[in-house]
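Checklist before submission:
- one chain only
- standard amino acids only
- sequence pasted in full

Submission:
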Amino acid sequence: MTVKAVVVSEPIPGVRQLTLNRPERLNALDAEMVTELHTALDAVARDRDCRVVTLTGAGRGFCAGLNLEGYGDPEREELMGKTLAILDRQREIARLTEKLHALPQPVIAAVNGPAAGGGLAMVCASDIRIAAESAVFAVSFIRAGYSACDIGVSWLLPRIVGAGAAHELMLTGRRFDAREALGMGLVSNVVPGEDLIETAHSKAREIMLNPPASVELTKQGMWMALELPSLKSAVEFENRQQVITALTEDQPKALHAFFDKAVPEYRHR
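Returned file contents:
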């Protein structure tokens, strides 16, 4: 039986869990895993029954970054030549963070262990980040002789932890633990390892109390606001979101559930 590099499951209704599944390599990224993760993210983006995505790793690691012992695509260099093959490979990996960032559903990263390089990039591209006490983080690209500006980290990390902290982490490439990540705002919560997945699922349940369209537009709007040049432009963008959500069929259901303290049933309309 073929072992999948990315396991897709539905631990609770409405939640799709993507588990990176190369535990013997701390879930390091290779061609197979990257391809399967692209496929899974594309499927999730089309799935209107999916309300929240949780992303985690099998075994004791989240994702140790690129598999430096070999990406596993020699045919690419045979077809394209070394330079263009490396560029094509780089773009393929970097699109993962763009897809996580662009998913209509919020992504909760449940960081169960080391998250370095590309692993840290996927953590940053997630919307909510929860860490186990055993989690450790590192930009790490620079320690391997590459630039620390990779796979979206130079854009994402400063917006999450601030430019000063991000610059220090990127220029040193040092490891930092879950408590330090909590202090700088990279993660919102640190929990014992045995409680990590249930904590992520509990947060997913909280999100699903809100209408799907409201959640999707809020995710889009909160990230978009980081790129807008002024308060005025942000408010104008918000005004349109408020009008759109106010006219959905789910908005009255949410209002009634709020006043009645009931669990709403949404139609995503």
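Reviewer check: The longest helix spans residues 82-102.
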